[in-house]
Amino acid sequence: MILITRPRYVLLFLALLSLTSISPSSSSKVEDISNGTRWAVLIAGSRGYDNYRHQADVCHAYQILKKGGLKDENIIVFMYDDIAFNPKNPRPGVIINKPGGNDVYQGVPKDYTGKDINTHNFYAVLLGNISGLTGGRGKVLNSGPNDHVFIYYADHGSPGMVGMPIAGDYVYAKDLIDVLKKKHDAKGYKSMVFYMEACESGSLFEGILPNNISIYATTAANSKESSWGFYCPGDFPSPPPGYDVCLGDLYSISWLEDCDKHDLRKETLAKQYEVVRRRTANGYLDSSHVMQFGNKRQSEDFIFTYMGTNPENDNYTYFKYTASPATSRPRVVSQRNADLLHLRYKFDNAPDGSDVKLEAHKQLIDEISRRKKVDHNIKQIGKLLFGYDKSSEVMKNVRTPGEPLVDDWDCFKMLVKTYEKHCGFLSSYGRKHTRAIANMCNTGVTPEQMAAACVQTCHMKSPLS
Q1: Residue 394 in contact with residue 439, Cβ under 8 Å?
Q2: Choice among 54, 60, 148, 156 that is catalytic
Q3: What CATH number is associated with residue 207?
Q4: Which residues 6+ apart lie within 8 Å of 3 measured at CB?
Q5: Distance from C-alpha of 188 to C-alpha of 180, rounded to nearest angstrom
Q6: Tell me: the pLDDT tens digits for 269-294?
Q7: Is residue 335 part of a domain?
Q8: Given this model, what pLDDT does residue 231 score?
Q9: Catalytic-residue membership of 361
Q10: Residue 186, phi then psi, degrees to nearest 5
């Protein structure tokens, strides 16, 4: 009897030994965490009910981190906070990130809200510079050389920049990278992960994020394409009745819903990148290319290193994501057109002859008119600077992958400011033209030449004025 059973025990022992022999990397990550702290900075850079999805994404991210074991003192949240109790919200005090989803607003810290969400405070927070703050609750990223930092930014983007709630305030790619370099030089973290949800978000890192400062970044799109709203009205899957906005963004809900299900001690950043890449690129009528930048070796880190993990997911079995059949492909909405969808849906569903319908119609027509005007302005400025024949070629030029958007970032910032001084602030739609402005710098256009072209274009009456 002993001779029969002993081999079974031996085999069981060897099997257990083989399992432990393949997991030292997992245990080493846990040991690393024990010597440091997880920190997170979450920012929704927009405002307005039509941008519901950005704050919903950020609130959802907070819930994941909280369930993962991060303390509120180590999670810093930027959100305008004009959604939950907005009169248009069908569920006052509640924010959801998917149809039938749970409230993700409850418990979210209000560290920086309203006008306190600005580039100045964002950079001060990243650098741990309390004295540099101009509002908010004074919470900053006091991370040290043993700590792991996660940053998530959801907003409207454009080539070379992402927005802030206040018009004219932008996070420029070069400025952001310079701040991150300063944080690295100050030994302000051991490793950092940056997730960016925005149109043309790849341009924030492409060609300018070094691979030797222990930062791994992924973006919702490459440097020349839109990112996409998800769970939008009139599409499938659609928000519950009463909602006329998109509830989330495709890239964001892909990583958020992945985190909701999995034991993050067993899932690497690389695996999540692949899941998000496949879900964002496949199975939809429109899509974007999720990108990765910086130190790609960090993608082998476990997500647990940065976000912790929900104990309820300990026994979850990982299933590989597969695209939906072509016959049931969900639809997505370009971030830049989500506001138009909101207005159109509001107009279509308002009672005929009602004040609500008349107002929605006016808002829709006004927005379309503003879009036509900025398109006209940029096109006309290009003609004045480069001539009728060459304008389109120069303005639409896209650089070789791996190159930064622009060589002279100070020129880029100056030309954007020059345009806005003479022609008005660029909306989330209008900022799609920042590649054309970057190309002006790349061809040697000076601020004085830009100012002259803007004055001639925007201070003269036109059919679109």
Answers
A1: yes
A2: 156
A3: 3.40.50.1460
A4: none
A5: 9
A6: 999 999 999 999 865 556 789 999 99
A7: no
A8: 93
A9: no
A10: -85, 5
Q: Are residues 311 and 403 in the same domain?
A: no
Q: Are 42 and 75 in contact, with CB atoms under 8 Å apart? A: yes
In a domain, 268, yes or no: yes
Q: Are residues 118 and 255 in the same domain?
A: yes
- The number of folded domains in the chain is 2
> 350 falls in which pLDDT band (50, 70, 90)?
confident
Domain identity same for 266 and 383:
no
Mean pLDDT of 308-335: 65
Percent of the chain with pLDDT over 70: 86
Instruction: Tell me which of 228 and 44 has the higher pLDDT.
Output: 44
Q: SS3 letters for 332-368?
A: CEEHHHHHHHHHHHHHHHCCCCCHHHHHHHHHHHHHH
Domain that holds residue 377: 350-458
Q: What would the pLDDT profile of 121-139 be if each residue is shown by its tens digit?
A: 999 999 999 999 999 999 9
We report the CATH number of the domain holding residue 435 as 1.10.132.130
What is the band of 330 on the pLDDT scale with cuts at 50, 70, 90?
A: low
Both tokens of 87, joined, read 């009169």
> Do residues 70 and 158 share a domain?
yes
Total residues belonging to the chain: 465
Six token digits for residue 327: 């016959």
116: closest CA among 47, 49, 219, 27? Answer: 47
Distance CA 255, CA 389 (A): 45
Are 137 and 264 members of one domain?
Answer: yes
Token pair of 263, please? 């034991």
Q: Which pTM value belongs to this model?
A: 0.88
Report which DSSP code applies to 88. T
Structural domain includes residue 222:
yes
The answer as to whether 432 is a domain residue is: yes
pLDDT band at 259 (very low <50, low <70, confident <90, very high): very high
Q: What is the pLDDT of residues 25-62, one digit of tens each?
A: 333 344 346 689 999 999 999 999 999 999 999 999 99
Q: Residue 333: what are its φ and ψ, rounded to 5°?
A: -125, 130
Q: Which residues of 175-189 are buried (b: 16+ CB within 10 A; e: fewer)?
A: ebbebbeebbeeebb
Judge contact between 83 and 55, C-beta under 8 A.
yes
Q: Which of 54, 60, 199, 259 is catalytic?
A: 199
Q: For residue 322, how many other CB atoms are within 10 A of its CB?
A: 10
Q: What number is the average pLDDT over the span 140-163? A: 97
- 120 catalytic? Reply is no
Determine contact, residues 95/80, Cβ cutoff 8 Å.
no
